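mind reviewing this fold:
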Amino acid sequence: MANTTLSTSETVEKPKSTAKPRKKNRDFKMNNLAGYLFISPWLIAFLLFTMVPMIISAGLAFTDFDTLSNRGNFIGLDNFTRMFSEDPRYWRSVNATIKYVIFSVPLRLSAALFIAMLLNTPRRGVYFYRAAYYIPSMIGGSVAVAVMWRQLFGTEGLVNAFLMILGLDQPIRWLGNPDTAIWTLIILAAWQFGSPMLIFLAGLRQIPQEFYEAAEIDGASAIRKFTRITLPLLTPIIFFNVIIQMIGAFRTFTQAFIVTGGRGAPLDTTLFYAIYLYNRAFNSFQMGYAASMAWVLLFVIAILTAINFKLSSRWVYYETDVE
C-alpha cells in the first residue's frame, strides 16, 4: 500500500496570520487621528488667521484697494514702483529700521550673554535673579512699559533728573532730538534681554565642565576659556538668537508707536517700517500699498535669514562637526 503520509520536510507551511500587521496599521491610523485632533485648534487658527490673510494680502498688493471706500482696482506693480522711486518716507522708514536692527540686536545679545554668564555660576539667590532679569522681557512689549519709558526720558523725567543732580545744566529733550530719539528705543530693546538670556543660560549649562577643568590645568585665563571654549560651543545658540532677534527687530512696533506717538517724530528718525506700514493701512486707508510693503518686508527677512544660514557653516560649531 502506498504511503500517503507526508514527511516532515514535505509539510505544507500555513500562511502567516495578518492579524498583527493589520492591528498595527489600525493603531497607527488611530494615533495619527488622535494627534490631528489635538492639534486641530492650532491648524484651524493657522488656516483662518495666517494662511487666508496672507493669500488676501498677496492679492491686495497688486491693487489700489482703499479701506475707506472698500473698493480697489488691479494696478499691477504700481505699488512697488511707487514704493521704491516715489515715496521718500518709505526710505526713511527703511533707514530707521536698519539702524535700529544693527544696534539693538548686538546690544541685546551682548547684555543677555553677559548676564547669563553671571547667573551660570552657583551663588546664593541665583534663581531669584534669573526670574527678575526675565521680567522685562515678559512685560517689555506692553503698552504700560512703553508709557513708563516715555516718562523716564521725558524732559522732566527721571533720567534728566538724575543727570541734573550730576551737574547737567539743561534737561535733554531725548524724544525731541533727532540724534537721541532712536537711541531711547534701542536702549529699551537692550533692556529686554530676558528671553535670549534664558536661552544662553540653557546653552551654557550644556557645556561639559571637564573642558574648563582641563583648561585650568593648562593655565588658561578666564578670557582664553571664554574665547576658546565658551564661544565656540555656544555658537549654535548665538546663531539661533541672532535669527530670532533680527526678525523681531525688523517687526518692532508697539514700543516705538507708544513712545513716539506713532508719527516717527522727530523728522521720521523713529519711523520704523512696521509703523509706516500701519499708518498707510489704517490712517491713510491705503491697504493695497500697505500689503505690498508687508510682502517686501517678508522677502527681505527671508533673504537675510537665508544668508545667515548660508554663512553659518563658517562660524557655527556643532558637536557632529568632528573630522
